[in-house]
Specification:
The chain is built from 2 helices and 4 strands, in the order αββββα. The protein has 72 residues and is of the alpha+beta class.
Length: 72
């Protein structure tokens, strides 16, 4: 799926339910077979996209603590 930057800006962007109001968040939007990601502080800035499978693996690893600094 190839969308223009303006079309990407109009997607249904979502923040995590637990995000704080200080703006230090990422937002995600579904793009069919991929997920778009942007910085909530800079919604007109860069937008990254990853295949849904890769995004799902990342979320699972984050939930299990794989990226925790204290794990070494």
């Amino acid at each position: 799926m190839s969308l223009s930057y303006d079309e990407l800006l109009r997607l249904n962007w979502r923040k995590a339910k637990r995000s704080m109001s200080n703006g230090n968040c990422v937002e995600v939007a579904l793009l069919g077979r991929s997920v778009a990601i942007r910085d909530s502080k800079d919604p007109r800035g860069p937008i990254l996209s990853y295949p849904t499978g890769s995004w799902g693996s990342f979320i699972q690893d984050a939930r299990t603590g794989k990226f925790d600094v204290s794990r070494g």
